[in-house]
Design goal:
The protein is built from 13 helices and nine strands. The chain is globular. Strands 8-7-6-9 form a four-stranded parallel beta sheet. A three-stranded antiparallel beta sheet has the order 1-3-2. Strands 4-5 form a two-stranded antiparallel ribbon. It has two domains: 73 residues, Arc Repressor Mutant, subunit A, CATH 1.10.10; 151 residues, Rossmann fold. Helices cover 44% and strands 14% of the residues. By secondary structure, the protein is an alpha/beta fold. Helix 6 crosses helix 10. Bound molecules: S-adenosylmethionine (SAM). S-adenosylmethionine binds next to helix 10 and strand 7.
């Protein structure tokens, strides 16, 4: 929640905009906060620093505390193409976070599915019914894929040797598949996801979209990619064989 608050207040951008490590009073003024909130902002800064997103610069007791972003902290910058803050905000959105307040009650009940969110709906049922949350969610996943894809196509290049076709199962809006397709232009990359996620997306180059339910059918391909599926999808045990 501290990191969420820091992102929403624009803390990473305020630290980054300063030439060199920034002091508490400078942060309060550049973030446009009431001066009376300075002691509370200091606590927030300490928490964010303890989580590894900020470095605290203070040599002696008499020195003024100053802060700079760590490499992890730079991932929270809104305009960083590898922004990880969007995913953090979505995971902490009340839609996904609220059920965790009832975990102990859920454990005590005989019945109950672990993937139920707001209004008793299953996660994907809910996402499909709430276009605003769906956009937030898909955008966050796409940004995460941008970051991971960069690593996968560079560091994991050899894993794609001899692969002519690939299907990204539950591949969201296709950022991961697009990055792989761009790195390997000879490969056909198919993205399978639910219809509401793929609506409005069009095939392009060597990327194809297939709307459907992975529990019913998966397009045939040399390789199947599964990235960040929720446990229910991973453990339900009825993923069909690729045709
Ligand atoms: C956590 S997201 C991961 C998206 C993508 N793999 C990524 O890492 O960016 C899970 C995805 O699974 C999709 N999904 C859920 N149930 C599905 C189903 N039965 N068939 C196909 N896709 C499904 C969701 O729409 C969502 O895009």
């Amino acid at each position: 929640m501290s990191i969420k608050c820091a992102i929403q207040l624009g803390l990473p951008e305020a630290v980054q905009a300063h030439s060199g490590p920034i002091s508490l009073p400078d942060l309060v003024s550049s973030m446009g906060l009431p001066p009376a909130k300075a002691p509370y902002l200091r606590r927030l800064l300490r928490l964010v620093a303890n989580s590894g997103f900020l470095s605290l610069h203070k040599q002696n007791d008499d020195d003024v505390e100053r802060y700079s972003l760590t490499p992890a902290g730079r991932l929270l910058l809104r305009h960083n193409p590898f922004n990880a803050g969007a995913l953090l905000l979505v995971v902490l959105d009340p839609v996904l976070a609220e059920p965790f307040h009832h975990m102990s009650a859920w454990f005590r009940r005989e019945e109950g599915d672990g993937d139920v969110v707001g209004g008793g709906k299953m996660v994907w049922e809910y996402v499909a019914s709430d276009p605003e949350f769906s956009n937030l969610f898909n955008d966050a996943m796409a940004r995460d894929s941008g970051l991971i894809a960069e690593l996968v196509v560079k560091e994991g290049k050899s894993a794609f040797d001899g692969v002519v076709s690939l299907v990204d199962v539950a591949g969201g809006t296709g950022n991961m598949a697009k990055a792989i397709a761009e790195a390997f232009p000879e490969m056909t990359c198919t993205v399978l996801d639910l219809p509401h996620v793929l609506s409005g997306l069009e095939d392009g180059g060597n990327v194809k979209y297939v709307a459907g339910d992975m529990f019913e059918s998966i397009p045939a391909a040399d390789a199947v990619l599964l990235k960040v599926l929720l446990p229910k999808e991973g453990v339900s045990g009825h993923v069909p064989k690729s045709r």
